[in-house]
């Protein structure tokens, strides 16, 4: 029974962190700081789906680049939506655990996506394997899970073919037959 729980757990982690985002065109990110606690502690996997920046409202959690074109991202809540004096659309963001809004306004080009779903602590697992390693790990994990399932299936089929009442190796008592001396 425990082995099935482990298999289901591994399958769920792979599905949540790799397969669903890939199929849906979303991107998984991992929260590394405590700025979004208590709901999203460090190690939380956040999956962000693409969004039209002009449809983002106050209260929406977004993932954005600190500097446009650079890989470093932040996931914070939008606290204000506005237009600058030059007519530029901008967002003010703030981490849930932070006392003040973020210093810099966020431009639409910086937005990577809107939070679709998140799973606390699963990000620690996905951070262990990154980039091309993640793809190879996923393939190996899927092959391993299918292999294990096949092994369990063959074992169960073998047990069904055994006549009922016939003891298995585990059930067979271990006795020694010695000649009786009188």
Automatic annotation (TrEMBL):
GO terms (BP aspect): signal peptide processing
Group of enzyme by EC: hydrolase
Regions crossing the membrane: 136-154
GO cellular component: membrane
GO molecular function: serine-type endopeptidase activity; signal peptidase activity
Annotated EC: 3.4.21.89
InterPro entries xref list: LexA/Signal_pep-like_sf, Peptidase_S26, Peptidase_S26B
Keywords: Hydrolase, Membrane, Transmembrane, Transmembrane helix
Subcellular location: Membrane
Main location: membrane
Keyword Nucleus among UniProt keywords: no
Ranges for region Disordered: 160-182
The name this protein goes by in its record: Signal peptidase I
């Amino acid at each position: 029974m425990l082995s099935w729980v482990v298999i289901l757990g591994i399958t769920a982690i792979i599905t949540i962190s790799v397969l669903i985002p890939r199929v849906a065109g979303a991107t998984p990110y991992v929260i590394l700081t405590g700025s979004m606690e208590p709901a999203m502690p460090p190690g939380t996997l956040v999956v962000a789906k693409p969004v039209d920046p002009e449809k983002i409202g106050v209260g929406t959690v977004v993932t954005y680049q600190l500097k446009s074109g650079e890989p470093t991202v932040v996931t914070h809540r939008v606290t204000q939506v506005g237009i600058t004096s030059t007519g530029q659309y901008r967002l003010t963001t703030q981490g849930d655990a932070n006392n003040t809004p973020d210093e810099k306004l966020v431009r639409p080009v910086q937005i990577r996506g809107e939070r679709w779903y998140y799973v606390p602590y699963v990000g620690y697992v996905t951070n262990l394997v990154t980039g091309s390693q993640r793809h190879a790990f996923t393939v190996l994990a899927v092959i391993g899970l299918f292999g294990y399932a096949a092994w369990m299936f063959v074992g169960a089929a073998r047990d069904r073919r055994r006549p009922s009442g016939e003891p298995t190796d585990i059930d067979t008592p271990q006795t020694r037959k010695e000649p009786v001396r009188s």
